[in-house]
Every structure is written in structure tokens, then in C-alpha cells.
Design a protein that fits this description.
7-stranded mixed β-sheet; globular
Length: 123
């Protein structure tokens, strides 16, 4: 079992930056691929970014490429999402997820989820 806790969300103006953190506890999370997803009001959960267990490979949704960066520090059991050049349409609840088997861009690929952290971008 892996527990995930997100932090770092908040209110930011358009063009600003935030760094989200996802702290993992329980089973050694370093062996898990990790992903970030977001869900805006009235919309389905959407893929943001993912990273393999050793950080060797990353995936990004097209609209996030060049603006968001996913990284991890396995010594701290923490995954980060650096978000730059934020836009009002980035407003959503951001959740991290973990999977021990494979990785991917769909929520069904992940076994464990955090509660999420709210990101609000004002225009």
C-alpha cells in the first residue's frame, strides 16, 4: 500500500508559477512510476505528466509541454510538478498517482491516488 499526499497548490495570477509536491509513504515508492492528473469542475480527469520509477523517462500532455516539468527525488519519496506560465485554463484539482506495473496517460493505469490539491489561476 502506498499513501500519497499532495501539497503546493494555491492561487496564482496568469503567467505565474507553482511547484506541486507529492509525498509518498508506505511501501517503498521509489519502485513506482508516478503521474499527475488534473480535474476541472464539470470535466473528466485529464493526464498531465508521468515519470518512470528512476526518472529516466517522462511523458507530458501536449498542452503542458514546455510549461510543466515533472521530476522526482527517490531519497525523499517525493515527486514534483513545476508549473510555469500558468493560464486560467490550468485551474483544476491536481492529483498524483502511483503504479507498480507499467505507466501511462490514463487513470486506469494507476493503483494509488492522493486526495489532490487545488490550483487556481486568475486572469
Amino acid at each position: 500500500q502506498v499513501q500519497l499526499v499532495e501539497s503546493g497548490g494555491g492561487l496564482v495570477q496568469a503567467g505565474g508559477s507553482l511547484r506541486l509536491s507529492c509525498a509518498a509513504s508506505g511501501r517503498t515508492a521509489s519502485g513506482y512510476a508516478m503521474g499527475w492528473f488534473r480535474q476541472a469542475p464539470g470535466k473528466k480527469r485529464a493526464f498531465v505528466a508521468a515519470i518512470t520509477w528512476n526518472g529516466g523517462s517522462t511523458l507530458y500532455a501536449d498542452s503542458m509541454k514546455g510549461r510543466f516539468t515533472i521530476s522526482r527525488d527517490n531519497a525523499k519519496n517525493t515527486v514534483y510538478l513545476q508549473m510555469n506560465s500558468l493560464k486560467p485554463e490550468d485551474t483544476a484539482v491536481y492529483s498524483c498517482a502511483a503504479t507498480a506495473t507499467g505507466w501511462g496517460t490514463v487513470p486506469e493505469a494507476y493503483d494509488y491516488w492522493g486526495q489532490g490539491t487545488q490550483v487556481t489561476v486568475s486572469s
